[in-house]
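Z., the sequence and structure:
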Amino acid sequence: MKSIYLIGSMKNPQVPLVANRIEKEIGIEAFCDWASPGPDADEYWRDYEKLRGRTFKEAFNGYHARNVFDFDKKHLDRTDGVLMVMPGGKSAHLELGYVVGCGKPAFILFDKEPERFDVMLRFATDIFMSEDEMIHGLQQFRYREEVDNA
């Protein structure tokens, strides 16, 4: 594993910090540039589309939505796996499912014990309950992968 795509909420300030830690301690690319427009990007897009008099379906099929989707998908496809940094919403879970369907490893970093237990999270390669556990788990996964490919 040479790169990992961090999935999460645009409102989660931990995402770039987790990316920094992965790059520093594991030495792989941790992509999260999708967060650069800021935590309110989706609301600004919605408000803009409404000012233009467009419905959700029109906005969904518009240039902006296609451009952002293509950007995200390009990086989901090019990276070696994903890490969903919780909390994550609908988009995060869709991205995780897409990557699992592509046969790539998918990990989940919880910010706390989930209130609702969900067995479908077993689609993930592994889950982590702390950043330290995540670093150790990703290092071990990377080592096993290198041994298997040797």
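The two ends are 13 Å apart (CA to CA). The mean pLDDT is 95.

Let me know what you think.
H.
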